[in-house]
Every structure is written in structure tokens, then in C-alpha cells.
């Protein structure tokens, strides 16, 4: 079974089982961390989220920043602010729930608006993206609610052992 198939299947299940519809205007309060497990934070609905205290971002927000700027910024612009080529994810993420985000990144998407077609390629086969989907979601969620400023986070929490283990397992190492 290919990794892309697994990610696509996971995204489909998450969309079908999502506990909440797409959120209209996510807020810092709704995105607040209420639970932490092995260094990863979750909101009240169980979605991965960020934790930023005294200018220190959690590991997953920092990792999401790094992964975003390795693979996504070319189209979506630095820090998710958009470009002439692709939309601002700081805006889009306000209306996209976790399951929808996973599905779009894994499977891609085509849209036609005003006679112009836009295509988001599928990244379900790219380990440098799909192994870090939560990290990307967390970083972009923090940017969307303006919890994380533009640019590289100046301070980050240490990498949790769970993140190292998940990375090794996903990357095949």
C-alpha cells in the first residue's frame, strides 16, 4: 500500500468523522491549547494546535514553519500571506477545518473562479510534506489567528521524543 493511499484514506476518514464543520473565523480562544500530549497541543475539539508563551513557540509550530518554508512558500508566499499564484493561507485557514486541510494537502484540489483555474497539487506521496501535516496545520493555524508573527520564530521549545519517533517511523528511518 502506497503512503499516498494511506494519507488519502486517513484524510477521507477524518473528514467523515470531523466533530465540527469548517470553522468560520477561527479565533485564538477556539484555537487555544487545552491538552498536551508528548509535547503536542490540542484544542477543545481534539485538533492539533499551537502553544506560544513568552515568545517561545512549541516544537510543532516551529517545525511547521520550517516545513512550510521548505515546500509551500514558493506558491503561497512567505509566512502564508499569499502570492499572485496562490491564495493567502493566513486567510484560508480561518475557514478550513483539520480534516479538510489534510484532504486538500494530500489529494490536491482544482478550482475555477472568474474563468481562471487554480490547482493545488497533491502532496500525499511527498514524505517531506505528509510526515509533517500536523506541523503545517499547527503553524498555519497560529498564523491565521495572528498568534505567530511573520518570520522565523525567535525561540522554540525543545523537540519532544515523540516527534523524533514519529518522524523516524514516517520517514522510514
TrEMBL record:
The domain of life is Bacteria
Stretches for region Disordered: 149-173
UniProt cross-references to InterPro entries, sorted A to Z? C-typ_cyt_methanol_metab-rel, Cyt_c-like_dom, Cyt_c-like_dom_sf
Question: What keyword terms does UniProt attach to this protein?
Answer: Heme, Iron, Metal-binding, Signal
Span of domain Cytochrome c: 63-125
Say yes or no: keyword Endoplasmic reticulum present.
no
Does the keyword section mention Nucleus?
no
Family annotation (SUPFAM superfamilies): Cytochrome c
Cross-referenced Pfam families, in alphabetical order? Cytochrome_CBB3
Task: Report the leader peptide range.
Answer: 1-24
- According to UniProt, the name of this protein is Methanol metabolism-related c-type cytochrome
Question: What is the protein's species of origin?
Answer: Sinorhizobium kostiense
Amino acid at each position: 500500500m502506497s503512503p499516498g493511499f494511506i494519507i488519502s484514506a486517513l484524510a477521507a476518514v477524518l473528514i467523515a468523522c470531523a466533530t465540527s464543520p469548517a470553522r468560520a473565523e477561527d479565533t485564538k480562544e477556539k484555537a487555544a491549547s487545552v491538552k498536551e500530549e508528548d509535547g503536542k497541543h490540542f484544542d477543545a475539539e481534539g485538533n492539533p494546535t499551537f502553544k506560544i508563551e513568552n515568545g517561545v513557540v512549541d516544537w510543532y509550530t516551529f517545525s511547521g514553519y520550517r516545513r512550510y518554508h521548505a515546500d509551500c512558500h514558493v506558491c503561497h508566499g512567505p509566512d502564508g500571506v499569499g502570492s499572485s499564484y496562490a491564495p493567502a493561507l493566513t486567510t484560508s485557514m480561518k475557514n478550513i477545518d483539520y480534516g479538510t486541510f489534510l484532504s486538500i494537502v494530500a489529494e490536491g484540489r482544482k478550482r475555477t473562479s472568474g474563468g481562471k483555474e487554480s490547482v493545488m497539487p497533491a502532496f500525499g506521496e511527498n514524505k517531506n510534506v505528509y510526515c509533517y501535516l500536523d506541523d503545517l496545520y499547527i503553524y498555519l493555524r497560529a498564523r491565521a489567528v495572528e498568534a505567530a508573527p511573520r518570520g522565523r520564530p525567535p525561540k522554540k521549545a525543545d523537540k519532544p521524543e515523540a516527534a523524533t519517533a514519529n518522524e523516524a517511523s514516517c520517514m522510514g528511518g
